[in-house]
Amino acid sequence: MGPNAVTSAEGLGTATDIIDALGTVGDWVLAKAWWLALSGAALLLGWEALQQRLAAKALAERTHVELAPSAQFDPSPEQIWRQGMQLIRAAGSGPWWVPRRARTVRLRLRADGTRPLTYRVEAPATAHALLAQTPYGARVQAMPAAAIADKRRDHVVRAVLTLNGAPGSRLRDVPLDPDPLQPLIDAVATLDAGLGDLAEVCVDLSPASRWHLAVRRAQSMRLARETARREARHEARWLTQESTVSLPVALGRLLDPAEWRSHRGQMVRSPRPRRVERDIVLGKLAQDTGLVRVQILVRCASDAAGRAEQRLALISAAMDVFAGASRLSSLGWSLGPLRFGPDRWPWRARFDERWTHALIRLARGGWAHLEEIAGLLKPPTVTAHLPLLESDVPTYAPGRDLVPQGWHRGPDGRERLLATREDDTLFEVQSGKGGWGKTMRAQVQAVASAHNGRGLAFVDPHGDCFTDVARYLAHDEIMERIVLFDLTVRDGDDLLACWNLLDMSAGQRPYEVSAAVIDAISTALGWGDVSAPRALTILTKAVEALVAVNARAVAAGAAEQQATVFQIRPLLTDPTFRYLTLGALGPEAVRWWTGSFPDLPRDGLATVLNPLERLGANPAIRAFLGCPVSGYDIRRAMDEGHVVWICPPGTGPTDRLLISLIVRDFLRASLSRRDMPMAKRRPFRFYLDELISLDGGASAVLAEITEQLRKFGGRLHGMTQLLDRLSPTTRAALLQNASCLSTTAGSVEAIAPITNQWAGNVTPQDVAGLERWWHYAALTVAGKRIGPLRIRGPELEEVFGPLARPARTGALLRASHVNAGARPLSQLTALALAQEQQVRGFLTSLTPPAPDSHVEEHYA
Q: Judging by DSSP bridges, how do beta strands 402-409 and 327-330 pair with one another?
């Protein structure tokens, strides 16, 4: 036997041995198959149990961060990309032994009717430092938050949204303006907290697994190649059909030489499969940077039947904003009225586990690129229109400690009367066209404050407001506090109270009273140390002298013999009266009157006397300011919570001087509350209509009120048609400190100073198109700026209709006069005209009259 034969025999024997060995192994496997299956199943169960245990341990400690954006939050695509990459890093920040199903980060978007839409990030506890700061900068606050513990609700529905489409297909490229979250915000805008409504969308993200991605890529390429080959075979069949002809046609071609020439060298070839382009086939799977596995869980609940299902349908529809070649659709199927999915057994337990622990099923869900879901990677931006909830701005109801602002229509079509809290509403500015609701809105606010037990003063240059509000104030509790000063009276029997600017009977400090009167008159007339130094000096010394006289009179129990501003004339022009006055003054004042005053030119006195003459020319003003003891005491009104209504006789130059005195006295009285503990300073509102007519004489005062009186309880509500006609000082102070800023329609130029404060959220053109009674308003609630909002101005009848007491308006008027100490105009006029003699009598008791020749010699 040759060598080749031996080698062949040996090889045959080896092959036989291998076959025999494999047969033996096969027999053993078949004999032990059930043992092997059982062992494999045990190993799989053990591995799964270990994975679940490790996942539960890893997910037991999570960090929760709430992202609170500012009103101007407007992120760039680059900032959103960086946030997405940071979230991916946070998801994989756990220890090495954490299963991939537990390497997740959750974005929880939640609404329960108390807030429009909260945005939280939940990640492993080890990622807390990573999430404490965001790429969004200072316009997003990352605040640590506790885990959510919800109460049980009667009706709960669930949904799982998955990405449907080819593996590499993309969702729609949704622009950032308008906000991609807007459909979701609209879907949850009508939640009712009172009915237990709740809606939550949880977006779970997990980093891309390299081997999972490799398997998916291989599957996609294999399917693409199979598709290409299938298309090639399909095309070959069509070509074969075209090349196959009938026998007559074939014989005709053989007999036709032209056919021979045209088909010479041709043959039917099978088409090759088209080339498969990797980047085109894989699409978003071609690059693993920024690729994540996405799982979206939705849960809606309510205590009212049917509301949760309606909310889930709205949220599912809202997600259609992302629909493109791929889309987000709900997992499950329907059979007639029955729906099989996460709400049914056995899928419900699996959903609840994923919901509770943020687990991701690796076998389900889809891949998404960060750019596709950019709209879900940030909280609502400046381009989102958030619904206004009652938790944002309260609803007014009589008896609540609120200030009504206007009617607002919510997403559900229901109107409610918005209000701000009394303690939040410090200073308010209303601008806009005359007759379009500014004064009516202020009246409603004043009536509300009166029913809240708050004090206020309403300066009404037109004199009509008290008639409008009287029927709504005619209640016993308000009648005890109402005070009316109506200077529009004409008949001698009409009742009027009085106000002595220099009255010292309430225990005021002399220098405060002097400063208030001097500042009021000088600012009203535009006097200053440069423009009118002589007139300012004469006025100062005259007022100080008369205040000193009144202090002596009150101390002597002769309050009825106090001087008024109308005694400035005899003090400056009558040597005898001046001589008597010196007996009540100190040595320094006497030296000025005896040394400096005689050297002043007499024609300079006219500058001081002229405005006083104009005041005294009006009988009502003469009676109001010319009596010795005041019924008007704004400090007392502030401390006791009075409701004061002041009706000046008009808006002319003389009336502006009077109102300037009133406004300056409000500032003085507020500042004088320094002697009270802060807790006892009752807030007091001051309503000033027609600021244009007041600002010329009180510009500095209005600015000081907004800048200084917050701590002393002073509140200011100003109304004007044209903000630009106010002095720069007043306008700047009002805009800087306004708690509420509103405007009605008007010209674009007149509206622009208001809309400039709103950073382009409302344009002058938007405001100019408003109908009558409508406003745009920015409010302050609990220290937070709300708006600007489009509101309809409230009217007295629709807000306080049930409180109207028209039959008791007469009783209210009588009470307002009694509380003010009002007397007939004729009686007050006679008293004012005789007051100079009363003062002379008191001064004579202090200083015996000297002979006329001595007086003339003294002032020679």
A: unpaired
Identify the CA nearest to 524 among candidates 707, 668, 661, 706: 661
pLDDT per residue over 564-594, tens digit each? 999 999 999 999 998 899 888 888 989 999 8
| Closest to 69 in 3D by CA, of 129, 130, 143, 132 | 143
Distance of CA 300 to the CA centre of its chain: 27
CA 252 to chain centre: 89
Straight-line distance from the first to the last Cα atom of the chain, in angstroms, rounded to the nearest whole number: 169
Q: Tell how strand 105-111 and strand 427-431 pair up.
A: unpaired
Where do runs of H (alpha helix) occur along 418-504? Answer: 438-451, 465-473, 476-479
Give per-residue burial for 803-833: e unless 16+ CB within 10 Å, then b.
bbeeebbeebbebbbebbbbbbbeebbebbe
Any idea which of 166-170, 406-410, 434-438 has the lowest mean pLDDT? 166-170
Of 756, 797, 754, the closest CA to residue 775 belongs to: 754
Cα 457 to Cα 6: distance, rounded to the nearest angstrom: 127
Closest CA to 458 of 468, 707, 102: 468
Residue identified by tokens 């407001």 is: 465
**Rounded distance, CA 371 to CA 176, Å?**
11
Q: Is residue 488 within 8 Å of 472, Cβ to Cβ?
A: no
Query: β-strand 118-124 against 62-69: which pairing, if any?
Result: antiparallel
Residues 6+ apart with CB under 8 A from 58: 94, 95, 98, 99, 102, 124
Q: Tell me whether the omega of the peptide bond preceding residue 346 falls within 30 degrees of 0, making it cis.
A: yes
**Residue 103, phi-psi category: left (phi > 0), alpha (psi -120 to 50), beta (remainder):** beta
- Which of these, 219, 19, 209, lies nearest to 104 by C-alpha position? 209
Q: Report whether 484 contacts 645 (CB < 8 A).
A: yes
Residue 235 clears pLDDT 90, i.e. is over it: no
Q: Is 189 helix (H, G, I), strand (E, B) or coil?
A: coil
Distance between CA 472 and CA 500 in Å, rounded?
A: 31
Opening angle at CA 600, ends 595 and 606, nearest 5: 135
Amino acid at residue number 41? A
- Written as one string, the DSSP assignment of 552-618 is HHHHTT-GGG---GGGHHHHHH-HHHHHHHGGGS-HHHHHIIIIIGGGS-GGGHHHHHHHHHHHHHS
User: How far apart (Å, rounded) are the C-alpha atoms in residues 584 and 614?
Assistant: 28
DSSP designation for 850: P
Q: Which residues make beta-bridge pairs with 684?
A: 455, 714
Q: Are strands 774-781 and 740-743 parallel, antiparallel or unpaired?
A: antiparallel
pLDDT of residue 849: 57
Is 485 in a helix, a strand, or coil?
strand
Measured distance CA(687)–CA(446) in Å, rounded:
8
**DSSP assignment, residue 416?**
E
Note whether 156 and 308 are within 8 A (CB): yes
Residues 6+ apart with CB under 8 A from 189: 116, 387, 410, 411, 412
Residue 250: which H helix or E strand, with range? Answer: helix 247-255
Alpha-carbon span 511 to 515, nearest angstrom: 6
Residue-level length of the chain? 860
Neighbours of 222 (CB within 10 A): 11
Q: Measuring CA to CA, which residue among 823, 845, 849, 847 is closest to residue 558?
A: 845
From the list 203, 73, 65, the residue with the least C-alpha distance to 133 is 65
| d(C-alpha 644, C-alpha 667), whole Å | 16
Out of 111-120, 167-176, 269-278, 527-536, pick the least confident.
Answer: 269-278
Q: Which residue type occupies 528?
A: G
Per-residue model confidence (pLDDT) at position 858: 45
Model confidence pLDDT, tens digit, residues 445-470? 999 999 999 999 998 877 778 889 99
- Residue 379 scores a pLDDT above 90: yes
pTM, whole model, 2 decimals?
0.78
**Amino acid in position 829:** T
Q: How does the average pLDDT of the chain come out, rounded?
A: 82
